[in-house]
Amino acid sequence: MTMIASTGSEFFASSDPYLGVGLAPHVRAVTFDDTSGRMVLKTAFGDEPTLYDHATGWSDPRFVDLVSAWVGNHGVVVTTLCEQVGEICPELKAEEVRQKADQLLHELAKVQALQWWYCPDKSADVPLCHIESGSRLYYTPLVIGAVPDGAEISRFAFVQRENGKTVLENCEIGVRLVLGPDGGGLLPYIFDGPHHGSDRNPSDEEKLVYPGFWHFLWRFGFLQSRSLDSFERQSWEFHERLFHARSRSFLGQRTIGATYQFKDKVPSPPAIKAPMSADKIALPRPDDYSSDAVPGHQSLYEVMDARKSIREPGARPLTLDGLGGFLWRTVATRKHIKGVELQDLLERPVPAGGAIHEIEIYLVINRCDGLKPGIYHYQGVEHALYALPAREQVRKAILGVACNATGLGSKLPDSLIVMASRMPRLGWKYQNLCYRLSLLNAGVMMEAFYLVATEMGLSPCATGSGDSALFALATGLGVEHETAIGEFILNGPPIKKSYH
After folding, report:
1. What pLDDT, on a 0 to 100 scale, did the predictor assign at position 495?
2. Which of 496, 466, 490 is nearest to 330 (CA)?
3. At what angle do helices 434-455 and 320-330 cross, to 10 degrees?
4. Range 483-494 average pLDDT
5. What is the spatial distance between Cα 390 and Cα 376, in angstroms, rounded to a whole number?
6. Closest Cα to residue 133, out of 116, 119, 157, 155?
7. How far lies 364's CA from each of 280, 374, 419, 481, in Å?
8. N or C: which end of the chain has fewer CB atoms below 10 A?
9. How far, in whole angstroms, is CA 486 from its chain's centroid?
10. Least confident of 22-31, 219-228, 385-394, 411-420
């Protein structure tokens, strides 16, 4: 980047002449509070008539008119901004003008009032795209380095349609590039251009198509340089980084949490599912069978210390009594709570976010005294199993996946517990963290499985992966309604009753 230290505007004459700045649409007016000595933004969201005051860290009242002029339009190019700052502060030298402009924009960014935009045609009414910040921590300085050789679009970048707009995002950073109505040509330039995936920057001929746009992408974090990549960054897969970014609270990011976004649109999905078949098998409860099946009296510490994964099934199979006692102690519904919250809730021995208990339990049985091989849905409120009409090859395939995940080879486990999430139950209340919350709930459930199985003298083992498509084949349920998110092997007593 070439800089000429004579006037404020010349700092950008050779590098970013198409870079503009403005205010986010929710800023409706700009004032100055004499009491606090700070510039104040009047903001409103959507069609709300109420205006909210957001004080900035800017204390120079001379700049109120400058920023006010951006309300309701796209703002100004950065070169013009620097010229205006120089006129307001004639005592400043060129470098000081740039620093003053930088400070002003940084203060606006801290309250998420700043938008950047790109427009190569000075006569155009609408920029080709603009940048929305999703974090009060994000800011890009006015002067940054040149794009490194070999830069290419980040592997964490992706495109989606959102509210009728095309959006380019990078889950590493807290900004989004939103295409304007005339910005459709930018996507082919980014993803299909000759420079994509190469070891060079766009040629001079390529730059003429959208001058300065490659540098615009670099400025806002949408490019990566393989020569500067780190092992730590490479260890993150795209889907893992995106999931992490979307399901964690980040300053000012998307709405997250208990918003009840569907409260006035659709009824909450019922807490208790209707029976999935007419073939019901009642399960014994702990007080229904002999004391031989009742667990011992180890302390919690002793059970936790003894807990370990035992993959191989033992000589004796799982029994219906043991299975019934296990399910009763871990996931049986103790209470169906109605009319207290906006949606029906459940009480189980294990906790769950919001007491919603969206996880349904399925049993894939291979060997269990008192129960035929098959696939069953567990109805916790009845403490009963309902047999599903699943094909035999599907049942064996599900067990086979569990064998591969745990290194058992062809030796099938006695049973596999499949935890399936009814995501709409969570999505009715929570926003942008449902999948994460369901995984947390499944993890809590797995630990309960481990501890109860250990105390009962059974053989537990969580699996690291499973096949949701096979679950869909077995149940006939679409992924949007209910999907498998975790699996857990439960065998009868271990071959050798030793946990050391």
Report:
1. 81
2. 490
3. 130
4. 94
5. 9
6. 116
7. 15, 6, 11, 20
8. C
9. 18
10. 219-228
Rounded CA-CA distance 388/385 in Å is: 9
Q: Contact, 495 vs 408, CB < 8 A?
A: no
User: Taking the CB of residue 137, how many other CB atoms lie within 10 A of it?
Assistant: 12
- Give the dihedral sign, CA 24/26/28/30: negative
**Does the pLDDT value for residue 361 go beyond 90?**
yes
d(CA 281, CA 284): 10
| Residue-level length of the chain | 500
Cβ count within 10 A of residue 309: 12
The crossing angle, in degrees rounded to 10, of helices 468-475 and 392-406 is 160
Tokens of 371: 């129960």
| Average confidence score pLDDT of the chain | 86
Which residues have C-beta within 8 Å of that of residue 190, sequence separation ≥ 6?
A: 153, 168, 196, 217, 222
Q: Which residues of 198-215 are buried (b: 16+ CB within 10 A; e: fewer)?
A: eeebbeeebeeebbbbbb
Tell me the range of 223-232, 323-332, 337-346 where mean pLDDT is highest: 323-332
pLDDT in tens, 447-460: 999 999 999 999 99
Residue 315: which residues within 8 A CB-CB, separation 6 or more? 495
Q: How many CB atoms lie within 10 A of CB 355?
A: 17
Q: ∠ CA(429), CA(433), CA(436), 5° rounding?
A: 125
Instruction: Give the pair of three-digit tokens for residue 377.
Output: 């849905």
Record the tokens describing residue 430, joined without a space. Answer: 């929570």
pLDDT digits (tens, 9 = 90+) for 405-456: 888 877 899 999 999 999 999 999 988 888 989 999 999 999 999 999 999 9
pLDDT tens per residue across span 67-122: 999 999 999 999 999 999 999 999 999 999 999 999 999 999 999 899 999 998 87
What is the C-alpha separation between 134 and 441, in angstroms, rounded?
28
> Per-residue pLDDT for 253 more than 80?
no
Determine the Cα–Cα distance for residues 359 and 474; give it in Å rounded to an integer. 17
* CA–CA distance, 337 with 340 (Å, rounded to integer): 7
Using CA atoms of 79, 84, 90, 91 in order, give the dihedral in degrees to the nearest 10.
-70
Helix (H, G, I), strand (E, B) or coil at 403: helix
Domain ranges of the chain: 9-246, 259-491
How many Cβ atoms are within 10 Å of 249's Cβ, its own excluded? Answer: 11
